Amino acid sequence: MRSLWDRVRQRQCISVAVGGMAKNTGKTVVLNYFIKAAQADRFAIGLTSIGRDGETWDILNFKRKPSIKVLPGAIIATSEQVLPKATAGLRVLERTGFDGPLGEIVLAEVVSSGAVELAGPSRRTQLVEVIKQLGAAGAEIIFIDGALDRQFSTAPNVSDCCILATGAEVAEAMDEVVNITRDRVRQFLLPVSSKAMARHSLPGHVVVINNGEPKVFPNHVTINTGDSFWRKLNDASAIIFSGSLLNNTLKSILLSGINISNLTIVVKDVTRLFVDASTITKLFASGGKLQIIRPVNLLAITINPTSSEGQDFNSLEFHKIIRQAIPEVPIYDLVKGLGPV
């Protein structure tokens, strides 16, 4: 069995985002696994976060959380305010000039082993710059802790590859967890649009190909509009969204009378897609297409069969069922040592 770390090395990923389907799905376990594996192979690592991770107690549900354990030589990008909470010895290298929710983001080198809190930048543009700064400071591979309400760390213009963490926290029933995860993975694996279609993408706007001609509308015009707006474009063959595609927007398109069987909808990448699986199914059932311009490199899925509410799954059964449901992506249980066959 090829280890998850081996897969990262084989793909030559420089930045790896770890995103969760819900809280307590095991993102910190994945981070600690990568930290240990990378430093054992003598990689200089960088760490940051787009939320807050590594704190002793979860600030939302007040439950104890696993700590992020680092070894000397690692470089972290975190808010200055949380530095005193680290048990690891830290030496501040430089200030980034970016303010996060807990103060300015600084780069710090780990000089003695221990635990750290990560509270990094909350904006996409800032995260991209912080990753560059970590690399310039000597990090050979950078791990990014994602956040439940911000998916942009997995975007292809932010990270080279991503890991999706799922588990018993997502839903009470195992089958439901599997189905929810499978639906999300299908979005990650949507087909890539043609280059000709991608060229129509215009930042800040929605472009509609109507009767063979592009019509351009500001993003805000198409958000939360009813089906009457789209009915005027009933000859549309393509709709290209540069911003987010919301569930209500797609529902309005489906109700508008547009010939869906002749329609291709394009979004920048999966992090801009906020649509229910059932609505996407209706689009496909009507013959419509949904494509992305920039594919996300989904490297693997990790699973956590335990729940903070005590509703735990059988590890072997959970691993087997989710592996059968999502054969396109390798599935790992890092605690139990389970992986793809």
Structural account:
It is built from 10 helices and 20 strands. It is of the alpha/beta class and 341 residues long. It folds into 2 domains: 223 residues, Rossmann fold (3-Layer(aba) Sandwich), CATH 3.40.50; 98 residues, no CATH class. Strands 6-7-5-2-10-1-11-19-20 form a 9-stranded mixed β-sheet, with helices on both faces. Strands 13-12-14-16-18 form a 5-stranded mixed β-sheet. It has a two-stranded antiparallel sheet with strand order 3-9. Strand 19, helix 10 and strand 20 form a beta-alpha-beta unit. Helix 8 packs parallel to helix 9. The radius of gyration is 21 Å and the shape is globular. The mean pLDDT is 89.
Secondary structure: number of strands: 20
Number of helices: 10
Q: Which runs of at least 5 residues are low in confidence (pLDDT < 50)? A: none
Query: Main β-sheet: number of strands, strand sense, barrel status?
Result: 9 strands, mixed
- Tell me the structural class: alpha/beta
The CATH class of the largest domain is Alpha Beta
CATH topology of the largest domain: Rossmann fold
What is the strand content? 25-35%
Describe what is shown at a glance.
Strand 19, helix 10 and strand 20 form a beta-alpha-beta unit. With 341 residues, the protein is α/β, with parallel strands linked by helices.
